[in-house]
Recover the amino acids of this structure.
């Protein structure tokens, strides 16, 4: 009996050692590429680090300058506007499409593949296509407008339309992955619930809001969190679609673009680190609030 206990302890000890050994590469990767740079960024936000790696401590000077910079508040406003429109609209559209794709209709496999395309298309390719669509001289959108007697417009160079154009692209890019998540969530719901609802005479509309939507809440929580974080980090489509000399750059740049501009274009890496740190705090606060509210809602659904 004693030998059995000793062997069990030895086996458990070896299993623990192998477990740590297997996750060691991941831990090293996280430490080298995420944890160390994170603390370096916070440290350098209190310095005047430049492109040559030269720095000296300057205390809170970067943060004082940042909170007095009108470009920061404009970028913050643009980022919040982008998030407010992109996240809800993307979720509503993708959930609606996923509900349609969950039906047994002819050619459903082809439709699912087509709707997933935005998720596997490179952002650079997406930006090139949409930039061509919005082009002020030969863009597809202007061609359609002129067909109906309208006047062409420089969509990406106009302060009133540049951000709206970016929002449309952001929604389109997020649809594919969101549809897949919602479709997977819908297919995990037991079909017996729908059969029972049909016997009770519930319409498709009522089935969606009394069965599908409540039971989809864990997936919805994940998608909202993912989209919120992604929308606050938007950069690539702005960088590739809006020219640096465009008069609409200020009215469409995000916080991440402001960070890039400070750190790369102007060589003020210390100031850029301060921008990144503030963005991190904003994301953490919003995610915490969202997780707290959604957790209550999900618990209510489960009960």
């Amino acid at each position: 009996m004693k030998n059995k206990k000793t062997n069990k302890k030895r086996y458990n000890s070896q299993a623990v050692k192998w477990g740590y050994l297997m996750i060691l590469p991941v831990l090293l990767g996280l430490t080298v590429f995420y944890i160390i740079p994170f603390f370096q960024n916070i440290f350098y936000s209190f310095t005047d680090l430049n492109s040559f790696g030269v720095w000296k401590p300057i205390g809170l000077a970067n943060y004082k300058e940042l909170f007095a910079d009108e470009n920061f508040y404009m970028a913050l406003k643009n980022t919040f506007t982008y998030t407010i429109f992109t996240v809800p609209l993307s979720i509503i559209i993708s959930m609606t499409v996923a509900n349609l794709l969950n039906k047994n209709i002819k050619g459903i496999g082809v439709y699912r593949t087509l709707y997933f395309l935005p998720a596997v298309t490179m952002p650079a390719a997406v930006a090139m296509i949409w930039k061509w669509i919005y082009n002020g001289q030969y863009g597809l959108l202007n061609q359609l407008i002129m067909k109906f007697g309208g006047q062409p417009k420089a969509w990406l160079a106009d302060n009133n339309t540049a951000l709206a154009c970016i929002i449309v692209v952001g929604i389109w890019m997020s649809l594919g992955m969101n549809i897949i998540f919602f479709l997977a969530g819908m297919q995990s719901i037991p079909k017996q619930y729908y059969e029972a609802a049909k016997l009770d005479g519930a319409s498709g509309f009522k089935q969606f809001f009394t069965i599908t939507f409540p039971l989809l809440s864990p997936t919805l929580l994940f998608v909202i969190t993912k989209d919120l974080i992604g929308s606050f980090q938007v950069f690539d489509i702005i960088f590739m679609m809006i020219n640096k000399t465009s008069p609409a750059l200020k009215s469409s740049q995000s916080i991440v673009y402001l960070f890039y501009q400070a750190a790369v274009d102007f060589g003020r890496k210390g100031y850029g680190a301060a921008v990144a740190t503030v963005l991190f705090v904003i994301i953490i606060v919003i995610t915490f609030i969202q997780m707290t509210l959604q957790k209550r809602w999900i618990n209510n659904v489960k009960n």
Observations:
- The CA atoms of residues 221 and 294 lie 7 Å apart.
- Confidence is low (pLDDT under 50) at residues 299-303.
- The radius of gyration is 25 Å.
